[in-house]
């Protein structure tokens, strides 16, 4: 059975010496824990890319800017698929500096070669360089955000990552809670928790080492 | 090392013995600490494995692994294993591999020959199958966790001891940083035991990082050693007297190591 958010709330309560899972001490609110847990889950996926999503974005000739999916966190792979030939070719992740200065005037690629998904104008946008001269498809494989946890007793949410990695995310949550400025602050324990979170990131990276590329 | 079936009730008793039968934890928190140890142990050592058949969709190179497996380690079709690859390697070695199928002909094989992970829950195969085909996917199974007092795990005596050490360290968290530091050796012993069980893990960089034995940065200089010109300039700035610069002929210069990592 997959670990749920309610299960982890109980887990946090005993680790942080709370009397119950309502966190009546007032050191941390449930709302705060809910946000922190969702944020750490997303951060873990961004750091490890263990849970990936695929999307195909229709691209139009001569259009350079495209909207990324709303749940986009980090791209693992991008490919351009020519509509006329249905052939795909991987895109290299780059930035505006390289895009503006990387192509000599004599080079005129017939298809996009670079994608900039982190410094494109506005948030959640990406740019193709050069702009495609024909219609096509931008295929993305990316780490996505998770649905925000609700901590609803009547409808517990699965955490969305393999159970084996949940303890490390919980340590990350405790690192955030214990480093908050307030009565519950304990920087020594927070530093320990952050290390345990990083252990999980390293282990996940090791499991996929040489495989994810 | 003798293997044995140890029940949750036995584990609780042995855990309490570690602290002279004066536990500061609740039964529920002890259960959670033990199960956490089992989960981390499984992901480090691949203790529990499983294999399951998965049928491909025609012309689709991506297929879901299914929830029973935490990590895919091996894929085979008709008893013949596929070679492990990566999305990046496929991108760089096989043109338009995504659209190749077992009936494409040309350079493309007539059966899947490579598989690559797509995160932990999906894999890609090359080439995709033109007709539904059953692959056998094996790997690390979801951890067997304990719930009832009669539930048991099959582990050796020393592994049980290591697992209890991990649980003790986890439970010490609620007593503060001093208790965490006092039991840190239990965590190190746990990781060390996992390294003995899994030699691939023991040889990895991540293992050295976690164990605090990553010394590569000590043998790799952070920057190239200063050149004679930069040393002379530094001396001039500090003392106002330029030091003689040792100049090398182009032929000699080629023989001098440039240093640095």
How would you summarize this macromolecular structure in one to three sentences?
With 213 residues, chain A is an alpha+beta fold.
Question: Could you spell the SSE succession of chain A in H and E letters?
Answer: HHEEEEHEEEHH
Q: Give the mean pLDDT of chain B.
A: 85
Average per-residue pLDDT of chain A, rounded, comes to 90
Task: Walk across the major sheet of chain A and give the strand order.
Answer: 1-7-3-4-5-6-2
Radius of gyration of chain A: 21 Å
SSE series of chain B: EHHEEEEEHEEEEHHHHHHHH
Model regions low in confidence, pLDDT < 50 over at least 5 residues of chain B: 245-261
Amino-to-carboxy terminus distance of chain B: 44 Å
Number of E strands of chain B = 10
Uncertain ranges of chain A = none
Please describe what this structure looks like.
The complex is a heterodimer of chains A (213) and B (261). With 213 residues, chain A is of the alpha+beta class. Chain A has helices spanning 5-15, 30-48, 96-101, 166-179, 187-207; strands at 52-59, 65-67, 72-82, 88-93, 114-116, 125-129, 136-144. In chain A, strands 1-7-3-4-5-6-2 form a 7-stranded mixed β-sheet. In chain A, helix 2 packs across helix 4. The radius of gyration of chain A is 21 Å and the shape is elongated. The model of chain A has no long low-confidence stretch (mean pLDDT 90). Chain B is an alpha+beta fold. Chain B contains 11 helices and 10 strands. Chain B has helices spanning 8-17, 27-45, 87-93, 157-171, 177-182, 184-197, 199-202, 205-211, 216-219, 228-239, 250-253, and strands at residues 3-7, 49-55, 62-64, 69-77, 80-81, 83-84, 114-118, 122-126, 134-141, 152-156. Chain B has a 4-stranded antiparallel β-sheet, with no helix packed on it. Chain B has a 4-stranded mixed β-sheet with strand order 3-8-7-6, with no helix packed on it. In chain B, helix 1 (8-17) crosses helix 2, helix 2 (27-45) crosses helix 4 and helix 4 (157-171) packs antiparallel against helix 6. The radius of gyration of chain B is 28 Å and the shape is flat. Residues 245-261 of chain B have low confidence and may be disordered. Classes of the chains: A alpha+beta (213), B alpha+beta (261). At the A-B interface, helix 1, strand 3, strand 4 and helix 5 of A face helix 2, helix 3, strand 7 and helix 8 of B.
């Amino acid at each position: 059975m997959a670990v749920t958010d309610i299960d982890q709330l109980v887990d946090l309560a005993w680790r942080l010496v709370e009397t119950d899972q309502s966190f009546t001490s007032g050191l941390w609110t449930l709302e705060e824990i809910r946000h922190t847990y969702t944020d750490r889950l997303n951060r873990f996926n961004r750091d490890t890319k263990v849970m990936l999503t695929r999307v195909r974005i229709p691209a139009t000739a001569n259009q350079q800017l495209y909207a990324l999916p709303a749940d986009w966190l980090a791209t693992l792979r991008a490919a351009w698929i020519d509509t006329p030939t249905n052939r795909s070719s991987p895109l290299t992740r780059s930035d505006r500096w390289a895009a503006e200065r990387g192509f000599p005037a004599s080079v005129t690629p017939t298809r996009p070669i670079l994608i900039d998904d982190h410094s494109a104008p506005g948030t959640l946008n990406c740019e193709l360089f050069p702009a495609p001269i024909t219609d096509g498809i931008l295929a993305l494989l990316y780490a996505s955000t998770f649905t925000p946890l609700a901590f609803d007793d009547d409808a517990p949410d699965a955490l969305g990552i393999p159970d084996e990695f949940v303890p490390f995310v919980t340590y990350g949550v405790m690192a955030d809670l214990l480093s908050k400025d307030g009565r519950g602050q304990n920087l020594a324990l927070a530093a320990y928790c952050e290390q345990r979170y990083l252990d999980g990131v390293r282990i996940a990276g090791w499991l996929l080492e040489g495989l994810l590329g | 090392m003798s293997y044995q079936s140890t029940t949750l009730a036995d584990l609780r008793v042995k855990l309490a013995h570690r602290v002279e039968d004066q536990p500061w934890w609740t039964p529920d928190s002890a259960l959670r600490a033990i199960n956490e140890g089992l989960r981390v142990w499984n992901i480090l050592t691949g203790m529990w494995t499983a294999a399951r058949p998965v049928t491909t969709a025609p012309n689709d190179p991506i297929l879901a692994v299914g929830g029973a497996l935490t990590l895919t380690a091996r894929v085979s079709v008709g008893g013949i294993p596929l070679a492990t690859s990566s999305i990046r390697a496929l991108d760089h070695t096989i043109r338009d591999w995504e659209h190749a199928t077992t009936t494409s002909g040309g350079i493309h094989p007539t059966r899947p020959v490579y598989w690559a992970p797509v995160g932990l829950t999906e894999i890609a195969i090359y080439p995709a199958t033109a007709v539904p085909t059953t692959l056998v996917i094996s790997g690390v199974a979801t951890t067997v966790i304990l719930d009832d007092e009669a539930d048991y795990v099959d582990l050796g005596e020393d592994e049980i001891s290591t697992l209890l050490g991990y649980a003790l360290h986890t439970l010490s968290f609620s007593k503060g940083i001093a208790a965490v530091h006092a039991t840190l050796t239990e965590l190190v012993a746990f990781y060390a035991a996992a390294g003995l069980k899994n030699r691939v893990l023991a040889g990895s960089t991540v293992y050295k990082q976690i164990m605090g034995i990553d010394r590569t940065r000590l043998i790799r200089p952070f920057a190239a050693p200063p050149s004679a010109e930069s040393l002379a300039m530094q001396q001039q700035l500090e003392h106002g007297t330029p030091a003689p610069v040792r100049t090398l002929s182009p032929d000699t210069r080629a023989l001098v190591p440039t240093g640095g990592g």
